[in-house]
C-alpha cells in the first residue's frame, strides 16, 4: 500500500498537482515507516530508509513551493466533481482550509435556495477546528412566494447561529452572478454550482439524505486559490 501511494505521489508530482502529491507522499511515508518497524532484515531496512529520506526531501520541497505560491498569491488547485460522484461532502471539500485562525467567512451565491445545504455548511463551520465568529452571506431574493420562505429560513438559521456565538450577516443583491467562498486566512473557493452541487435525495429515507458524503453530486468544478488579502463586501 505504501509503494502504491508513493507511486501515485510521483505521478501527481510530475503532473504539477503538488497539493495532492504532497498528501500522497505523506501517507506513503507513514506506510513505509510502519514497514521499516516490522522488518527484521537490515539490508531491506536500509533501502527503505533511503527511499523514505528521498520522499521526505521531495515532500519538504513541495511544501516550500506551495508556501511560496501562497505568499505570491499564485496558488491554484482545481477539483473536478463528476456527475453522480459521491464522497464530496462539505467537510471533504473545505476542511483542510479551515485552520484555527479562521474567524470570518464570506459566502457569495446568488441562488441560496436549498437552505438545508447552507445550514449544513454553517454546522461545519461551528464544529471547527476554526473559530468562526462572523459569516457574511450575499445572495439574491427568491422569486414570488418563495421569498417569504427564504427570509424566514435564513432568519431562523441566523438565530440558531447566535446561540453558538456566531453572527450571520445577510445582504441581498439583484446583480450578483459569481459564486465564491472566502476565509480570512486567505483561502478562496469557487464552485461552479455554489453550495447546491448535491442532487436532491429521492426521499428523507434515502442513503445520503443526512450524510452528504454519500449523496450523489451534479457535475461541477471547484477552484481553490490562496490570496494575500481577502476582500470584504
Automatic annotation (TrEMBL):
Pfam families noted in UniProt: MIT, MIT_C
SMART domains reported in the protein's UniProt record: MIT
CDD domains assigned to the protein according to its UniProt record, in alphabetical order: MIT_1, MIT_C
InterPro entries: MIT_dom, MIT_dom_sf, MIT_domain_contain_protein1, MITD1_C, MITD1_C_sf, MITD1_N
Residue span, MIT domain: 1-71
PANTHER family assigned: MIT DOMAIN-CONTAINING PROTEIN 1
Annotated protein name in UniProt: MITD1 protein
Organism expressing this protein natively: Ploceus nigricollis
Amino acid at each position: 500500500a505504501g509503494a502504491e501511494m508513493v507511486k501515485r505521489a510521483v505521478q501527481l508530482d510530475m503532473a504539477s498537482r503538488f497539493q495532492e502529491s504532497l498528501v500522497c507522499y505523506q501517507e506513503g511515508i507513514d506506510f513505509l515507516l510502519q514497514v521499516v518497524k516490522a522488518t527484521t532484515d537490515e539490508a531491506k531496512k536500509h533501502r527503505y530508509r533511503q527511499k523514505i529520506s528521498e520522499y521526505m526531501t521531495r515532500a519538504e520541497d513541495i511544501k516550500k513551493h506551495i508556501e511560496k505560491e501562497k505568499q505570491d498569491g499564485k496558488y491554484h488547485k482545481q477539483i473536478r466533481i463528476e456527475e453522480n460522484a459521491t464522497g464530496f461532502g462539505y467537510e471533504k471539500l473545505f476542511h483542510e482550509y479551515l485552520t484555527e485562525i479562521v474567524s470570518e467567512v464570506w459566502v457569495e451565491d446568488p441562488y441560496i435556495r436549498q437552505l438545508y445545504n447552507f445550514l449544513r455548511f454553517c454546522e461545519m463551520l461551528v464544529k471547527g477546528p476554526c473559530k468562526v465568529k462572523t459569516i457574511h452571506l450575499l445572495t439574491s431574493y427568491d422569486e414570488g412566494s418563495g421569498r417569504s420562505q427564504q427570509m424566514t429560513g435564513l432568519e431562523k438559521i441566523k438565530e440558531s447561529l447566535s446561540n453558538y456565538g456566531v453572527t450571520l450577516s445577510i445582504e441581498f443583491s439583484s446583480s450578483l452572478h459569481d459564486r465564491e467562498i472566502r476565509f480570512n486566512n486567505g483561502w478562496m473557493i469557487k464552485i461552479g454550482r455554489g453550495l447546491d452541487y448535491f442532487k436532491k435525495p429521492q426521499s428523507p429515507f434515502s442513503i445520503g439524505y443526512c450524510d452528504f458524503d454519500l449523496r450523489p453530486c451534479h457535475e461541477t468544478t471547484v477552484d481553490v486559490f490562496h490570496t494575500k488579502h481577502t476582500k470584504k463586501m
